[in-house]
């Protein structure tokens, strides 16, 4: 790696992949979404190669990721199947660009706290805006208030719970830093409950992983599936049923997440 010019471009995709996708990145347990591990990391170096031909910084690529994420939520404001399908495509594109910002930073050796912060802003804001857009879909056009306040309020509560669930992981890092503890390794042993009922429930949750439904990718797929079902059973009925089901499941997920954290080594000195 020392012979690589961080201001130049890679000689091949293989060279770029070796620098931008080292084993410690590909092996991260929680930092990689399943789409990245399954297929996006195979394609991201080609888009990263293009970014490296431009003066766009790694933080600039993260900015593009944020805009794509916001566009994902905005696409859901297009009624019917086509808005939901566009949101699915944009959701995948957001995750692809999300792979690229880190790859650009690793090639150019420009990783920084600002980049991490912007990445958090992108994911937090996108995953809050998507439920809000779902609430507007459930209320249906044209919106009529105060009758439609029920669906927009449920959507706002869902957005709040999703953001709180994401924030719990960051709260762990803040708590450890304030306590003077070392940074957690991204391994199963660090995050797993130490035993007892919580550990058994966590293992059972692998078979019904509803707690994983609240990422932007999963949410867009759910809304798209609801739009297809709605062709048969009618809209906004299906969107309303989906929204009504997602909120209590999200509350259960955040409660389980909190209990799992408290039962793990993450908050132990």
Automatic annotation (TrEMBL):
Superkingdom, natural source: Bacteria
GO BP terms in the entry: phospholipid biosynthetic process
Membrane spanning residue stretches: 76-100, 149-168, 213-235, 241-263
Lineage: Bacteria, Bacillati, Actinomycetota, Actinomycetes, Micrococcales
One GO MF term attached to the UniProt entry: phosphotransferase activity, for other substituted phosphate groups
GO cellular component assignments: membrane
Species this protein is from: Agromyces terreus
Pfam families reported in the protein's UniProt record: CDP-OH_P_transf (PF01066)
Stated name of the protein: Phosphatidylglycerophosphate synthase
Keywords of this entry: Membrane, Transmembrane, Transmembrane helix
